[in-house]
Amino acid sequence: MPHAWFIGGVPVEQLGVATFYLDIKVTEGTNTKSEKAEYISRVFASMEEILGNVAPASYIVIHEVHAETLVNLVGKTQADAVL
């Protein structure tokens, strides 16, 4: 929905750039700050390959969640999986 996304009050489709927003969940404490930074860098590079010119106003939000709250398809939490 590029027509519904604005940067500085201007619709993205009028700016001639692409943008994205990723909402990522990881188990708390499983990734270092440098690993997350590397992931973000690689995702931005990959998105530019896929989408072309990506606006700096694109976002990746990494949520660190407790292992007890991350549930897989068979109903086990991440905490249960490591036990």
Q: How far do the termini sit from each other?
A: 42 Å
The amount of beta strand, in percent, is 15-25%
Radius of gyration: 17 Å
Return the structural class.
alpha+beta
Biggest β-sheet strands, sense, barrel? 2 strands, antiparallel
Number of helices: 3
Describe the structure.
With 83 residues, the protein is of the alpha+beta class. It has one domain (2-82): 2-Layer Sandwich (Macrophage Migration Inhibitory Factor). Helices cover 34% and strands 22% of the residues. The chain is built from three helices and four strands. It has helices spanning 12-15, 33-51, 78-82, and strands at residues 6-7, 10-11, 21-27, 59-65. The strands form two sheets. A two-stranded antiparallel ribbon has the order 1-2. The chain has a two-stranded parallel ribbon with strand order 3-4. Strand 3 (21-27), helix 2 and strand 4 (59-65) form a beta-alpha-beta unit. The longest helix has 19 residues, at 33-51. The radius of gyration is 17 Å and the shape is elongated. The chain starts with 5 loop residues before the first strand and ends with a helix.
Please render the helix and strand layout as text.
Elements lengths: L5 E2 L2 E2 H4 L5 E7 L5 H19 L7 E7 L12 H5 L1
Parallel strand pairs: 3-4
Antiparallel strand pairs: 1-2
What is the compact description of this entry?
The chain has 3 helices and 4 strands; from the N terminus they run ββαβαβα. It has helices spanning 12-15, 33-51, 78-82; strands at residues 6-7, 10-11, 21-27, 59-65.
